[in-house]
Amino acid sequence: MALTMDSVSQTPYGEEAEARRSPDSGHSQPRERPTAAALPVRIIADYICPWCYIGLARAERAARELPLVLEPWPYQLMPHLPPGGLPREMVLGRRYPKQHYERLREQAENEGIPFRVPERLYNTRLAHQATLFAASRGRGQELHRAIYQAYWERGEDIGDIDVLCRLAEGCGLDPSALAQALEEGTYRQEMERREAWARGQAIAGVPTFIFGEGLFALVGAQEYGVFVDVARRLLERSRGG
Question: Which pLDDT score, from 0 to 100, does residue 199 have?
Answer without folding.
Answer: 92
